[in-house]
Amino acid sequence: METQKLTFTRTTCNEIVLGTDIFKEVAARVLRLRAARHCAVLTNETVAKWYLQPLLAELRTRGIKATEIVLPDGEKHKSLDSLSAILDQLCADGLDRNCPLIALGGGVICDLGGFAASVFKRGLPLVLMPTSLLAMVDASIGGKNAINLPGGKNLAGTFYQPVLTAIDVSVLRTLPLSQLAYGLVEAIKHGAISDSAYFRFIHKSVDSIKAKHMSLLQRLIRRSIHIKKSFVAEDELDQGIRAHLNLGHTFGHALEAAGNYIRLHHGEAVGLGMLMALKAARTIGKLEEDYTEHLRHILTEFGLPTKIPVELDKKELLNTLSQDKKKLHDGYRFILPQSLGKTFVHKVAQDKIEDFFLNACDI
Ligand code: NAD
Ligand code: GLY
């Protein structure tokens, strides 16, 4: 037998621009991408109402033709049917590999757009224009995309980096406060895993965040991107350190799934999941700095739950945990807090999970 190696050196760079009222600048940058004359803009009906025409106008000014793809709003449309409809329209309008796909919307649209761009003709230049806080601080950074399958959330997807992530903070003016809160949970998580000063900054800025002070939101988004970037740059394909971004998520996914994704929003579930992680770390004697009350305070200020809804049966939660796609063959891996800004990986064997999990539910 003989062997040969084929080594690849493909490097990609995601340029991230952040500012207020930057649609004009985004159109200029899109034009510079492979001298684009034709692009696709993917969005949903809610976001289209506010931002589609302003973006199309800037693209037209630069002589760029746009194929408009407007989907209904909602997580249930992050589906194979939507992906198929997007690909059909890209095909019908004759987009080629030099034509950028611009995803203008929250995490649902960024995930769908990322997936479609990664597979259509084996890859279109992807531009993400996140419009929810969650998409700005999380979904538009790191190159993960996905659709949901009947078997579960985010079960099909690719790693595919955007060439440009363009964040116009001013669009947060129209984002409902509840959605702002869901995004904030991921920002709090960034502080909890790697930057205690950032966590404290969020804690003391609750009123300004609620009032949507644009310069403060921009500072917050900048800091979150910086943190997420540092994990992703080191571990793009999620084989190691990137797992720390899952603080609160393994618990949170069980809560979301047990409530059929209706009872609790992802942001609410991750907030509860972080409280559960604090409780678990405290119980095993590994929590050196307990910031439970600070976290509880921020969640409460934003109207997010701090107790597991009574109707979610604990045994049912345990059952959904066992179906988690990140479960290992010999047990479970949790990211737990050690101190503010520091987390660690904790493995729990199959025969210990019930006690571990039920104790963590008592927050
Ligand atoms: P979403 O995309 O459904 O947006 C939330 C709501 O806000 C929607 O109704 C949307 O139409 C509306 N909206 C968005 N921007 C608006 C604006 N500026 N003004 C008014 N309304 C606006 O949900 P989301 O919370 O943004 O994202 C959740 C999705 O992101 C999930 O599918 C999740 O799996 C995914 N996600 C992906 C990653 C990743 O790394 N790829 C990370 C986190 C979450
Ligand atoms: N949202 C977690 C990650 O991007 O890895």
Report on this model:
- The chain is an alpha/beta fold.
- The protein folds into 2 domains: 15-171, Rossmann fold (3-Layer(aba) Sandwich); 176-360, Dehydroquinate synthase-like - alpha domain (Dehydroquinate synthase-like, alpha domain), CATH 1.20.1090.10.
- It is built from 14 helices and 10 strands.
- It has helices at 23-32, 45-61, 80-92, 107-119, 133-139, 177-194, 196-204, 206-210, 214-234, 249-258, 266-283, 292-301, 314-322, 353-361, and strands spanning 15-19, 38-44, 65-71, 101-105, 126-130, 147-149, 152-156, 164-168, 331-339, 342-349.
- The strands form 3 sheets. Strands 1-8-5-4-2-3 form a 6-stranded parallel β-sheet, sandwiched between helices. A two-stranded antiparallel sheet has the order 6-7.
- Helix 5 packs parallel to helix 6 (177-194) and helix 6 packs antiparallel against helix 7.
- The radius of gyration is 21 Å and the shape is globular.
- The relative contact order is 0.10.
- The mean pLDDT is 96.
- The site of glycine (GLY) has 6 residues, from loops.
